[in-house]
Specification:
By secondary structure, the protein is an alpha/beta fold. The chain has 2 domains: 254 residues, Aspartate Aminotransferase, domain 2 (3-Layer(aba) Sandwich), CATH 3.40.640; 134 residues, Aspartate Aminotransferase, domain 1 (Alpha-Beta Complex), CATH 3.90.1150. The chain has 15 helices and 12 strands. Bound molecules: pyridoxal-5'-phosphate.
């Protein structure tokens, strides 16, 4: 039998083994390299490394072996040529914009994106001459109509937070390329275990590793995945110069997270599916938002584009904010926190937390009602999560 090449490995094999070059110590688990700089065997070698004539480590703001292991593994999982790891999800987005845009350029973004991303675009990038327009995630015609000659980049998350709307990634990448734009997808909610945007035509994938890649709520980090040219040259250039690099300790945590990513994402999705179906039958619930339900407007697209629906479920309770707060406060197991992608189920009231800074009109137009509750379904026994939510619903 011929030797099986790494490119032919299955997803879980890559998630567990890609990137580790074992040292002469013979360690089984990936080593952490807590070193800020690296030494050279001679002055000539130092000169060759600095000039770029010879590859190798110089300084940990540029490269670090533990961080590189995480980068190679995530690139292999997303199907990208190159990954650069960052100190947070937000710095991944910032470094991407700094690397690929300049004053006068225009970003066209989905309206339903992470709150800090909206602030980064509107408050900070605008100061440097980069304008941003916003459109409805699922309305392909609206995207097309809003593209300007200066538009360089289309930006989206799918499924969206908290309403789990699903974008047509293949359709949007065709549109982007027809207009000479790049498509950037924040793949935080699905991770490569459930969705691989590069395979659907996207140019760049962004991650907040803080969420499902870690999966246990332990540390902050991010990543950008794409081609050698865009990510290996432009985005990496910003990283090594401006410095929001990932620490080797956090890279190690994310490496351990990736090993179980596929199992966890399937389990999050399974628990979420069961809860969403149960919630849909409850009299106190007006509407459930979950891509795995046939009642979801983009159910067919989601099932074709994603391996599984993911772990985010939102629902409207009858009675507005007082009812939503009463439900949340009656739970005993669920954590009241806006974080997601954890083994622990979290529950939040978007209108007064993550989306509290929007005006009531903006919230209405984004479909975020006062009775909306979001749960990021964790990996506890699903019967216990359900009983906890039932306690909440019974309080109404
Ligand atoms: C959390 C999050 C981010 C930001 O990531 P940090 O690691 O908190 O900086 C970006 N996008 C999405 C979709 C997120 O959920």
């Amino acid at each position: 039998m011929g030797e099986q090449r790494e490119e032919e490995w299955g997803f879980s094999t890559r998630a567990i083994r890609t990137g580790h070059r074992r040292t002469p110590e013979g360690e089984h688990s990936e080593p952490i390299f807590p070193t800020s700089s690296f030494v050279f065997s001679s002055a000539a070698e130092a000169a060759a490394r600095f000039s770029g004539a010879e590859p190798g480590n110089i300084y940990a703001r540029f490269t670090n072996p533990t961080v590189r292991c995480f980068e190679e593994r995530l690139a292999a999982l997303e199907g990208g040529e190159r990954c650069v790891a960052t100190a947070s999800g937000m710095s991944a987005i910032l470094a991407t914009c700094m690397g690929l845009l300049q004053a006068g350029d225009h970003i066209l973004s989905s309206r339903s994106i992470f709150g800090s991303t909206t602030i980064l675009f509107n408050k900070y990038l605008s100061r440097f001459g980069i304008a941003t327009g916003f459109v409805d995630l699922t309305d392909l015609a609206a995207w097309e109509a809003a593209i300007r000659p200066e538009t360089k980049l289309l930006f989206l998350e799918t499924p969206s937070n908290p309403l789990t709307e699903v974008a047509d990634i293949a359709g949007l990448s065709e549109l982007a390329h027809a207009h000479g734009c790049l498509l950037v997808v924040d793949n935080c909610f699905c991770t490569p275990a459930l969705q691989r945007p590069l395979g659907l035509g996207a140019d760049i994938v962004i991650h907040s590793a803080t969420k499902y890649l870690d999966g246990q709520g332990r540390s902050i980090g991010g990543a950008v995945v794409g081609s050698h040219e865009l990510v290996g040259e432009e985005v990496f250039g910003v990283l090594r110069t401006a410095g929001p690099t990932l620490s080797p300790f956090n890279a190690w945590i994310f490496l351990k997270g990736l090993e179980t990513l596929d199992l966890r994402m399937q389990a999050h999705s399974r628990n979420a599916q069961r809860l969403a179906e149960w919630l849909e039958g409850r009299s106190q619930v007006e509407r459930v938002y979950f891509p795995g339900l046939p009642s979801h407007p983009q159910h067919a697209l989601a099932m074709q584009q994603q391996q599984a629906p993911g772990g985010i479920v939102a629902f409207d309770v009858k009675g507005g904010q007082p009812a939503a707060w009463s439900l949340i406060d009656a739970t005993r197991i669920l954590s009241i926190t806006a974080n997601l992608g954890d083994t622990k189920t979290t529950i939040t009231h978007p209108a007064s937390t993550t989306h509290g800074r929007l005006t009531p009109e903006e919230r209405r137009s984004s479909g975020i009602g006062n009775g909306l509750v979001r749960i990021a379904v964790g990996l506890e026994a699903v019967e216990d999560i359900q009983a906890d939510l039932e306690r909440g619903l019974d309080s109404l």
